[in-house]
Design brief:
The structure is a single chain. The chain is of the alpha/beta class. It has twelve helices and 15 strands. The strands form three sheets. Strands 4, 5, 6, 9, 10, 11, 12, 13, 14 and 15 form a ten-stranded mixed beta sheet that branches. Strands 1-3-2 form a three-stranded antiparallel beta sheet. A hairpin with a 4-residue loop joins β7 and β8. α2 packs across α3. The two termini are 38 Å apart.
Length: 318
C-alpha cells in the first residue's frame, strides 16, 4: 500500500459513488463493521486502505483480511455506534402515525416511537433531547405566521430542518345550528358563553390565547377557560354534548363528531427534524417519503388536509 493511499480518505457519499450503492447501504456496512470508519468533527470518513480491505474481503468470498486502519495514523478513535435506533416522533395528528409506519416498513433499522405531546410541549421535548421529530402548529399573533417564530427561539443553538407536512383549517366548534351565533374570534368574549379548552402547550391552546390577546379579551373573563381536554375529539364531543358552547379545533374532527364548525384560519402543520451526522439517511428518507405520491394519497384519503405545500422545506439551519 502506498503512502499516498494511506493519506486518502472518503466521505460516505464518495464511498457510495465508488461502490455504486446507496448511502444507506454504506451506513449499514459501517454499522455492521464491514467497512471501518471514523469521525472527523461532524463527518464520517473512510480511509482508502479500509475501502481496499473491504473489497479484498469480497473477492475472497467474505474471508476477513486484517488490515490496520490508517485512522490509527491520524490518532482518530474508531467510530462509536452510529446512533440509537429509537426515533421519537412527537405530535398528535394521525399523519404522524402514517409517517411512522413508513419508517417501520422501510427496514432502515430505525425504531419509531410515538409521543403524543402538544406542539409547544413537543418542541420543549426536543430541546431536552427527548424527541427527534416533532410536529408544530403554533400561531404567532405578532407576525401572523405559524411555527418559525417559536422554533427559532426555542431551538437556538440546535441544527434542524423545518418541512411542511400538511395544511389544516382551524376554527371554533359550536353546537348544531350555532345557537350562540358565533362568527369570529372576538365573539368568544360574549356574555354567557361557556368554553372548553385544550391543555397548556398544545397548538390549539396557543392559537386561542393569541387570538384572545389580539381581540383584547382577558382569559379570566371566560367561563370554562380552565376546563381542559387533551385532543380535538374530546373538545368537539364536549361541545356536541352541550357541556360547552365552543371550543377550538380543526375542521377534520368536526366531520367525525355531530358538531358544527366555523373555519377561521389555515394552519401550517410542520415537522421539525433534528440534523445530525447519524440521521442523514433518515432525513433523506423522510423528505422522499413525504413528497411521494403514495404518502400524499394515504393522507389525502383521510380528508380535511391541504397537501399543496407538503414536502416544502420552510427553513434549515446551516
Amino acid at each position: 500500500m502506498s503512502n499516498t493511499e494511506n493519506d486518502v480518505s472518503y466521505t460516505t457519499e464518495e464511498i457510495a459513488q465508488l461502490l455504486k450503492v446507496s448511502k444507506l447501504t454504506v451506513y449499514d456496512l459501517i454499522k455492521k463493521g464491514e467497512i471501518r470508519a471514523y469521525r472527523v468533527g461532524r463527518q464520517m470518513r473512510v480511509d482508502a486502505i479500509d475501502l481496499t480491505a473491504y473489497k479484498e474481503r469480497l473477492k475472497s468470498g467474505g474471508e476477513i483480511i486484517p488490515v490496520k486502519s490508517a485512522a490509527a495514523n491520524h490518532k482518530e478513535q474508531p467510530a462509536e455506534p452510529l446512533r440509537d435506533p429509537s426515533v421519537i416522533i412527537s405530535g398528535q395528528d394521525l399523519s404522524l402515525d402514517i409517517l411512522a409506519s413508513y419508517i417501520e416498513e422501510a427496514h432502515l433499522d430505525y425504531r419509531p416511537l410515538r409521543s403524543f405531546a402538544g406542539s409547544l410541549n413537543s418542541l420543549i421535548k426536543m430541546v431536552q433531547g427527548e424527541a427527534d421529530i416533532v410536529s408544530t402548529h403554533l400561531f404567532d399573533g405578532e407576525t401572523n405566521s405559524y411555527n418559525l417564530p417559536y422554533i427559532k427561539r426555542l431551538l437556538t443553538g440546535h441544527s434542524y430542518l423545518v418541512v411542511n407536512l400538511l395544511g389544516r383549517t382551524a376554527g371554533i366548534y359550536v353546537q348544531k345550528g350555532n345557537p350562540k351565533l358565533l362568527r369570529n374570534w372576538s365573539d368568544l368574549g360574549q356574555s354567557g358563553l361557556r368554553l372548553i379548552n385544550r391543555e397548556k402547550g398544545s397548538g390549539a391552546r396557543v392559537l386561542l390565547d393569541e387570538q384572545l390577546r389580539l381581540a383584547d379579551i382577558s382569559p379570566r373573563t371566560l367561563a370554562g377557560y380552565e376546563d381542559e381536554e387533551l385532543n380535538h375529539m374530546a373538545v368537539a364531543a364536549r361541545v356536541a354534548s352541550g357541556q360547552a358552547d365552543a371550543g377550538v379545533g380543526i375542521e377534520k374532527t368536526s366531520r367525525l363528531i355531530d358538531v358544527d364548525f366555523i373555519p377561521l384560519i389555515q394552519e401550517s402543520y410542520d415537522l421539525v427534524i433534528l440534523k445530525t451526522d447519524e440521521n442523514e439517511v433518515l432525513r433523506e428518507f423522510l423528505l422522499t417519503t413525504i413528497r411521494s405520491a403514495d404518502f400524499k394519497a394515504k393522507i389525502g384519503a383521510i380528508g380535511g388536509y391541504d397537501l399543496s405545500n407538503t414536502g416544502a422545506i420552510l427553513y434549515e439551519t446551516p
